Amino acid sequence: MLFSSITFLYYFLPLVLILYITLPFRYKNLWLLLSSLIFYAWGEPLYSILILLCILQGYLIGLRIEAARGTVRARRWLILSVILSLGTLGFVKYYDFFASNIKVLTHLPLPILSIALPLGISFYTFQILSYTVDVYWGTVKAERNLLDFTAYAILFPQLVAGPIVRYSDISHQLHQRTHSLSKIYLGSRRFIVGLGKKVLLANSFGMLCSKFDTSGDRSVLFYWVYAVAYTLQIYYDFSGYSDMAIGLGRMFGFEFMENFNYPYISKSITEFWRRWHISLSTFFRDYVYIPMGGNRVSKPRQLMNILVVWMLTGLWHGAAWNFVLWGLFFASLLILEKFVFSNWIMISKRSVLSSVLSHSYVLLAVIISFVLFRAESLGQAFLDLQGMFGLTEVPMVSQESWYYLRSYGVLLLMGAIGSTPIVKNGLLKLISTRFGETIAIILEPAILVMLLLVVTGYLVDGSFNPFLYFRF
Amino acid sequence: MGAENSDRKHKAGVIMLAVVLLLLSVINCLQPDKLLSEAERRTLKQRPFLTLDSILKKEYSDEFEEYAMDQFPYREAFRRMKAVSLYGLFREKDNNGIYLVNGFAAKLNYPLNEKSLKNAIDKFRYIYDTYLKEGSGELFSCVVPDKGYYLAEKNGYPALNYEELFQNVEEGMEYTQYIDITDCLGIEDYYRTDTHWNQVKLIPVANRLAEKMGFLEQLSNQYEESASGIPFYGVYYGQSALPLQGETIRYLTNNTTQACNVYHYETKETTLVYVTEKLKSSDPYEMYLSGADPLLTIENPQANTDKELIIFRDSFASSLALLLLEGYSKITLVDIRYIKSSILDDYIDFHNQDVLFLYSTLILNDSYSLK
């Protein structure tokens, strides 16, 4: 079920919320578990069994690891958990990719299974895996209550597209959390803002990208309009979803980690990845990069660690070579920043000109990376990049590109401004005055209501409504 | 913000959001399902039937969402809210492919679909080869420009390559005499909220056709103008979802139009040329010859000629054909979107009639409904 759907907003959510609020605390997790199961089964009826099996293995192995803590058996249980979790993910998500590549190289008659990717598997697999690793490391105690553990792993706000919530971050909240009117309001506010980002902005940019896809009148300008639109789409789509997840979590008394922090204002790729999909980058840092030795190893080994982590990050996003290349593209930039241009990165924080140059470099790199990311194949990616730099036989400007630039100009501008903290800071400044504080009492909720209604208008009109991160 | 003001805001916010969310949810669940959307002129999705199979195949969830979108309370108001924000706030230039210029709604119709155009020309060639090659009267072709011809390019909207389209038709239908009517029309000659042209503005078009087809002297051009009292909201009204003003359907009558009878082959009914009851239907433009119809004939008892005309046509011909009546004793209108070209001789005796292929650019650029 999509958050940005009439079914979720006007059937599922009101019912879940009303019952959740009225139930005593001891039944709240059970209700969350049941409603999360319905939420998941609505979109993936058959794979509901798979997610429950994954949860069960995580729960049982967590208990085993704790019981055998400090012995070699604990390590074996952990290895089993890693094999089961990554094996499942690897099979359903990567089998076809590897099989088709091996076939090309060896001509072995490997079958292509075309398995439909279970919704959210990349997210819940990592959550369950982080739990068993944390139990092994002794960071958290194993959860003894199967119901609470299942509720954690299947919690619908973050189930299908993150953020990747670690058990260690919410284990306490699972058993003891507070609910208040303020939390419900702040959660609703965050949810509606995320919904607006998704439906009004991301979907509109997505529509522009689909116009580009079907256009027979491309130009260099259109390639750039498309590239910028997709860069904004993916940001608003994913950060909007994260906002909705965080907001819903807050309404139910949970505090999830932030997943985005204005990544497009970064002045280096290193900074960009501290601001983009934070729950994923910290997962790879804590569970892959640091265990491999992180920065405390020789330079060649460090380079290898970075390349491995970023190749995995790329593969996590999809089983295709363009994702691998996407990860390695960032790895190369991170290596250059770390080992070659570290002084420049420091200087860029001091002068305006170098700051502008650094910012431009990040935006250009990110835009190029997302063109690579979105392409259906490597060939398509290179064609798109050639188009952007005038290396194909298209004119600089075409009738269609000019039209769509004008049609979506305001939206693109709003999207660009909204991806910086300018709006948020302006609003904070406004409500810091006595007058602003007073009018915000009514105006802020009224604007949220209006936003909800406008979003509803977009939804009932059957607007374009994909969720990019559902495929991961 | 002070704690007291924060509390007030949070309370106000929760109350306002809860009222909106719950009210809409409750109305949504309690209101009876509707069958039709009059504005969009389409049937609305009904609640899907729940079966284990439909759940397992994910069909139920997909169909339920479509149903939920279609049956949402105050749906038209919400669609309008979307359209207004899209045009007003985000300044997008079209909504669902419909754009507005000076109160005229038009559909983005581009680029030129050469395959579609060839498909149409091939269909017409088949008709010519099968029925007209031997023993027909004079053959004519005419393309009706859609509103985009007068609006798109000069207002910065992507436009079809109309000249190429006209040229392709002229060259591809070399067995006909091509009649250009683009200079007889302007944007004011079309309804603001609809695809179609306004019959009362079509006299110059009728005269151009009559001149080229050789019966200009028979046209009296003496008509009385009548108007419907019911506001007309065209097809773009619903598609754009904007609060556009209703228009008035006007039509031209004289002794000839009043004397003519129309025989509809499909329903085997005979009607007058103007079916005013249709003004109350979801598409009032159907008042001209009852709207979409595979095959009909108009008999003109007052004709002082025995010449006949066959028009292969789309909906634009319904209003125009009535202005050509004085030149013929019988006009047959054939819409090959609804009848196969291969069975036409089961119904029509092709014998020396004049033939006019009259198609709009909208159909030529999306011609796969032609049979």
Number of strands of chain A: 0
Strand content of chain B: 15-25%
Tell me the domain tally of chain A.
2
Q: Which descriptor suits the 3D outline of chain A?
A: globular
Helix-strand pattern of chain B: HEEHHHEEHEHHEHEHEHEEEEHEEH
Overall radius of gyration of chain B: 25 Å
If you had to describe this structure to a student in words, what would you say it looks like?
The complex is a heterodimer of chains A (472) and B (371). Chain A is mostly helical and 472 residues long. Helices cover 74% and strands 0% of the residues of chain A. Chain A has helices at residues 6-22, 25-43, 48-67, 72-106, 121-137, 146-154, 156-159, 167-175, 181-214, 220-251, 269-275, 278-289, 299-317, 321-339, 342-347, 352-374, 378-388, 399-418, 422-431, 434-460. By secondary structure, chain B is of the alpha/beta class. Chain B has 12 helices and 14 strands. An 8-stranded mixed β-sheet of chain B has the order 6-5-14-12-13-11-9-10, sandwiched between helices. A two-stranded antiparallel sheet of chain B has the order 1-2. Chain B has a two-stranded antiparallel sheet with strand order 3-4. The radius of gyration of chain B is 25 Å and the shape is elongated. The model of chain B has no long low-confidence stretch (mean pLDDT 89). Classes of the chains: A mainly alpha (472), B alpha/beta (371). At the A-B interface, helix 1, helix 9, helix 18 and helix 20 of A face helix 1, helix 3 and helix 4 of B.
Provide a compact summary of the structure.
The complex is a heterodimer of chains A (about 475) and B (about 375). Chain A has about 475 residues and is mainly alpha-helical. In chain A, about 75% of the residues lie in helices and about 0% in strands.
What characteristics describe this protein?
heterodimer, A: 472 residues, mainly alpha, 2 domains, 20 helices, B: 371 residues, alpha/beta, 8-stranded mixed sheet, two-stranded antiparallel sheet, 12 helices, elongated
